[in-house]
Amino acid sequence: MELRKFKVLSFDCYGTLIDWDSGLKAQIQMIAPDIDPEELLGKYAVHEARIEHEDPTAPYRQVVAQAAKAMADEIGRPISMEQATAIGHSVGTWPPFPDSVDALARLKQHCTLVVLSNTDRQSFAGSSAQLGDPFDGVLLAEDIGSYKPSLKNFEALNTWLAEHGYSHDEHLHVAQSLFHDHVPGKACGWTTAWINRRNGMEGEGASGPMLDVTPDYEFPDMKSFADAMDASVAGS
Fold this sequence. Notes:
This protein is an alpha/beta fold and about 240 residues long. The chain contains ten helices and six strands, in the order βαααααβαβααβαββα.
């Protein structure tokens, strides 16, 4: 693997570095503890994608609140707006995957790290602190005014890369969601690495449909990716 050629790595955050599914499950299972949490995640994901499309400038914590309330209404377990708001404000407390912090610290020794995330500044502040604040560039949906998979978000990163002197050949986009990241990333001509966190699991979780796209690299987790990068650099 010629991973050592990449000078800048861009990351999705939720689902790739932060355990989005577990963070959501802990919140939405309180609405319906008797329903399969994977079923709840699937229903929630549909509402989230719809709301992000309909209201692309809404802060992510507000999107989460609205999607949780819509899901609760759909399954006949309505919740108050106060309860929904509390779920939305929990985003910054969702935990990192166990390997994320160490992997990012190792990767930062070799590359510039940038995050391209479907979130708002308030929520991301909590998530970034949990990850060790490793990012040299931060591009968030709240600042861009749209949500992935909109190409507007990817164009914003293209602009950032050009302004900082990076070519496409030096850039690798790293993400879990095929729907949010790999399909639009490949449409932009990017090289992508799939962190296949849900490998072997049933359902799609909250990360959207499994679309027909072929990432350039695939790893089961961030540790494996960091190991491969370390090995590639050591072999140069």
